[in-house]
Every structure is written in structure tokens, then in C-alpha cells.
Amino acid sequence: MTKAYSAFSLLCEGLNQQQGWEPAWRDAAPKRAYDAVIIGGGGHGLATAYYLAKNHKLTDVAVIERGWIGGGNTGRNTTVIRSNYFYPESAAFYDFALSLYEGLSKDLNYNIMFSQRGMWTLAHDRHGMDTLRRSANAMLLNGIDAELYDEAGVRARIPGLNARPRFPIVGGLVQQRGGTARHDAVAWGYARAASALGVDIIQDCEVLGFQIEGGRMRGVETSRGTIRTDRVGMAVAGHSSVVAQKAGVRLPVSSYALQAFVSEPVKPCLDTVVLSPAIGTYVSQSDKGELVMGAGLDLYLSYAQRGSLPWMERAAAGLIDLFPQFSRLRFLRQWAGIVDVVHDSTPIIDATPVPGLWINCGWGTGGFKAIPAGGWCLAHLVATGESHPLARAFGLNRFRTGALIDEAAASGIAH
Amino acid sequence: MLLILCPYCGPRAEIEFRCGGESHIERPGPYSEVDDGAWADYLFTRKNPKGEHRERWLHAAGCRQWFNVARDTVSHTILAVYPMGKTRPPTEAGT
Ligand SMILES: Cc1cc2nc3c(=O)[nH]c(=O)nc-3n(C[C@H](O)[C@H](O)[C@H](O)COP(=O)(O)OP(=O)(O)OC[C@H]3O[C@@H](n4cnc5c(N)ncnc54)[C@H](O)[C@@H]3O)c2cc1C
Ligand SMILES: [Zn+2]
Asked: What is the pLDDT of residues A264-319, one digit of tens each?
């Protein structure tokens, strides 16, 4: 059986008529008890399990996923990775995630197709430019790479921009280390690597409740039976309020639908990521050639995984103002994910009032880029009971003390 | 896409409205007795239910009146529309 992926194993399996490949991960059935259970088989849950095994040598671990792994937001997102945040706490955390992404294909022995093609934010008026200048300064102070360009500089670097858009392009800010990765590969790569270290990946298994005894976490009730465990980490994104409520925990989270869509595939025409907060759209081109576009949040609660038409129209209109030639393309698919929005657009990685239950949520519209660091820090919490230094500011207590890290207001870009 | 029945203007498309979030949240008081926990709860903690939700809507691009809506967050079905100040929706949908 062939385990590792390499040019050599590819060659051997080619000669072997591809008969020796192992499934990427074991399709495990739930045992009666584990040292730790992670709820949610998205990127954050799977990364948590991997780092529990790798960093903390905790391998008697199960990841419990209601549907299929990566079927939540991780497999629905537009895969933009960047660390251009405003506040030092966020910058340090997201840049750690970015640096882990840079080595992830090697670490996981799985090609996550991370492409550092640069990530642009455009400004269309003087005030937009002021905002970008402020962002660039904050980024540089935080040690993050940032380059600011005027209109000519932007046009020289982004191919195909409209020469005379309705909203003139005044300038742009680029983080060259930003880019995109293959979303499924991140989920599958972490699952495969965790499974190889002994973690059980259990799909089609919904957490229905908790066993809390003497005020302490003792197990989870699932659609496939009861599983005893003293340590539970949950990373269920848009379902955070629903799952936490089963443990009597209330959260400062609102669940909204965020939508995206792709065009039919075309030859390479856009070699970077372009975001325009002012006109409510962003776009990149996937390796398959599809243009991947995202819209804004539908701002009313939703668990429906479908986006509304007005926001789709708005994003499409913005796109063809920037790139009129794309108006000829047909949409191939449109979908939405349910994202977990908190007031300050900063994640929550913390203990809950129930001893033995830890939580990772609040990623809102931008947690794909955070997956390696979110998993790293939740694993640290579950294994040691202590907050990782990078996640110390991301506690639930900040809503009480007022120490919010208000990226929602600060960065001038959607999260 | 939602078709919302404004109690003042009749059925209108979603884009004319803004959702103001959960209804019936009471401001704790008196001021001097509210601790940080209760205040944080008031400001930030939300029910965020999967199912029926009572929420406030504003007919922003219309009559600019606020009103309450009971809506299912999974099917998006609007179960009832009822005036501000009332805490319980009438039983008949759409009235
Ligand atoms: C359209 C869209 C575009 C986005 N674009 C970007 C982007 O460009 N860049 C970026 O950084 N981020 C982006 N995001 C955000 C990003 O996708 C998420 O923040 C991130 O994927 C969250 O990962 P997660 O593991 O927390 O959640 P998920 O991947 O949603 O995983 C949570 C899992 O928990 C499972 N679950 C829920 N309830 C239960 C239960 N009771 N029992 C068992 N399992 C349960 C779900 O089935 C799900 O698989 C986007 C999101 C969307 C929707
Ligand atoms: Zn009206």
C-alpha cells in the first residue's frame, strides 16, 4: 500500500496501475470513549485534532462531523489568505497562520495549492485612499508586508482593469504574501495527517447533546451513540450558538449567510486577488480557470446556506464595473455558508463556563485564512487548559471588560 | 429573497428593508445596579436560534417605520408581522 505522496510514489503507482493507493484517511466508527473529542470536521476542527496529536502527543482523539468533512464553510469559501489586519493581536495571530500555510503542503505531505499571488484592496476616492494608507502603516508597524500604489501602479500590476470605471480607481494596497489555497485540500490534508497519527475522523455523526455531570464535561451524545470524554473542543462555525446552547452556554454570535459564486472556466486572465470594499466584491481566478467571486453578508439571521439575489446582483455589478470583459461569462454555481459573526469581527478561542468544554468560533467571513492558527491554539487549550499566547486576547471575557479588538471598524475591509 | 409585508405599505422586496436584530431585549436597570456581566449580556449575547426568531425590521426605503417579524431562520418563512411594543405575535401568519 502506498502512503506518502511524492513524485517517486506517483511514478511507482503509475507502473502499478494506481492499485496501491490507500484511502486518504480511515473512515472510523465512534469508540465508546476518547481522551478528547473535537466537534466539527471543518478546517478548524481537523487542524485542532492534527495539532493535538502532533504538538501535544494526544492521539486518542475523535473529530465528529455531522455531514462530511469540509462540507461546511471550509468547503464553501473563496479561499483568500492574508494577514493585513489592523490591531497587533490580530496581525500576530493571522500572520502566524499565514506562516504555517507557507509550510503546510510539506508539513501535511498534501498539496494544498497555496499560491501567494498577492491580495489587493482598491480605493476609489480620497477617503478610501486615506483608509488604505492607515492600514498600510498599521501593517508595517505590525511587521506585515504592505505596498501602497497610486492608480498607475495599480494598473501596471493588475491586468484587465476597466480604463474608465464608474468608480475611478485611485490606488491600491497589496500584501504580496497573501493569496489563495485549495479549500478541500486543506480539510483533506489535515484529516489525512491527523488520521495517520491515530485520530478517528467520524463523519455522518451529529452531536445532539452533552453529558455534564457535577457541572463538568463528561461526554457527548451523538446520532451514533454516547461517547465519554472529559475534554471537548467545539469548532462548528455558524452552528456555534446551537451546539453551545446544548451545554447551557450562550454566545455573542450571530449566524448569517455569506454567498459566493464561480463563473465558467476560462484561460488564465487574472493572476492576483482583487478586493474592492467600496463596491462590495472581490475576485480571483481558480486553477481550474473559474472566476471565484464573493459578495457581502445577508444581514439577517440565517441557517439556510443560500444567499439572496440582491447581494449577488450587487457583487456582479461591482465586478463588471471593474472588469467589463467578465460580463460575457456565465455563472456556473452559486452557494452560501453560514458564518459566525461576533461584534468586533475577532475570533473567540477560549474556555467556556463548563469545565472541559472549549470553543473556537467567531470567524465570521474570514476564518479560512486562520485555520492553521485556530487549530493550533484550540489544541493548546484542550491539551493544557491554558490559552496560547497568540490567542489570549480572543477570550469571551472581552465582551465584559470591553477589551474588544474591533477589526470590524478598523480595517475597512470585510472579514 | 424575502417578500416582507410592511404593516403600513404592504408587501415589498427585501432590499427596501433593514433588519434590526433580535426583538424584545430589555435594557437592564436601574443603571447603578447593572454589573458588567448583565451589561455585556444585554449588548452582545444573542439567542441566534435555528428556527423561529423574533426580530425587528425597518422599512428603510419606504415609510421608515419599525415593526416586529417572527421568521424561521431555516426556511426564511415569515410567520407573523406585529407592531413594535407588542411582545407576542398574533397567531395568524401575515397579520
Ligand atoms: C462564501 C464564503 C466565502 C468565504 N471566503 C473566505 C475567504 O476568502 N477567506 C477566509 O479566510 N475565509 C473565508 N470564509 C470564512 C471561512 O470559510 C470560515 O471562517 C472557515 O471555513 C470556518 O471554518 P470552521 O472549521 O470553523 O467551520 P466549518 O468549515 O463550517 O466547519 C464546521 C463543521 O461543524 C459541523 N457541525 C455543525 N454542527 C454540528 C453538530 N451538532 N455535530 C457535529 N458537527 C457539526 C458542520 O457540519 C461543519 O462541517 C468564507 C465563508 C463563506 C461562507
Ligand atoms: Zn412601510
From this structure: 999 999 999 999 988 888 999 999 999 999 999 999 999 999 999 999 999 999 99
- Distance between A194 CA and the closest CA of chain B, angstroms: 31
Could you state, in order of their start, the residue ranges of all structural domains in chain A?
A: 24-81+86-95+102-107+183-252+344-411, 116-177+255-341
Question: Which homologous superfamily does the CATH classification assign to the domain defined by A24-81+86-95+102-107+183-252+344-411?
Answer: FAD/NAD(P)-binding domain (3.50.50.60)
Judged by its nearest atom, the ligand closest to the C-alpha of residue B65 is 2
Query: Nearest chain B Cα to A307, which residue?
Result: B1
Task: Give the mutation candidate from B3, B23, B47, B48 for the A interface (greatest A CB count, under 10 A).
Answer: B48
Q: Which residues of B, range 12-41, sit inside 8 Å of A by Cβ?
A: 13-15, 18-19, 21, 36-37, 39-41
* Residue A110: CB atoms within 10 Å: 20
Looking at domain A116-177+255-341, which of 1.20.200.10, 3.30.70.20, 3.30.9.10, 2.40.10.220 is its CATH number? 3.30.9.10
Buried b (16+ CB within 10 A) or exposed e, A122-153: bbbeeebbebbeebbebbeebebebbbbebee
> Domains in chain B, start-ordered, CATH in brackets?
3-27+37-83 (3.30.2270.10)
Q: Which of A303, A310, A342 sits opposite B50 (nearest CB)?
A: A303
pTM of whole model > 0.95? yes
DSSP symbol at A255: E
Neighbouring residues of A230: CB distance < 8 A, sequence distance ≥ 6 = A35, A216, A217, A218, A356
Element (H, E) at A122: strand A119-123
ipTM of the modeled complex: 0.94
- Separation between Cα atoms, residue B40 and residue B47, nearest integer Å: 14
In ligand 1, the atom with minimum distance to the C-alpha of A43 is 25
Q: What is the pLDDT of residue B91?
A: 55
Q: What is the pLDDT of residues A207-254, one digit of tens each?
A: 999 999 999 999 999 999 999 999 999 999 999 999 999 999 999 999
Rounded to the nearest angstrom, the minimum Cα separation between A224 and chain B is 22
CA–CA dist B19, B67 (Å, integer): 10
Report how far ligand 2's centroid is from the alpha carbon of B64 (Å): 6
Q: Which of A255, A303, A348, A405 is best to mutate for the B interface (most B CBs within 10 A)? A: A303
Between the CA of A297 and the centroid of ligand 2 the distance, in Å, is 23
**A300–B47: do the CB atoms touch at under 8 Å?**
no
Contact across the interface for A239 and B50, Cβ inside 8 Å: yes
Cβ-contact A283, A291 below 8 angstroms: yes
Q: How far is A298 from chain B (nearest CA, A)?
A: 10
List all residues 6 or more positions away from A377 whose beta carbon is below 8 Å from its beta carbon: A93, A349, A360, A387, A388, A390, A391, A394
Average of per-residue pLDDT values in chain A: 96
Using 50, 70 and 90 to split pLDDT, how confident is the model at B95?
very low
| Identical fold, A24-81+86-95+102-107+183-252+344-411 and A116-177+255-341 | no
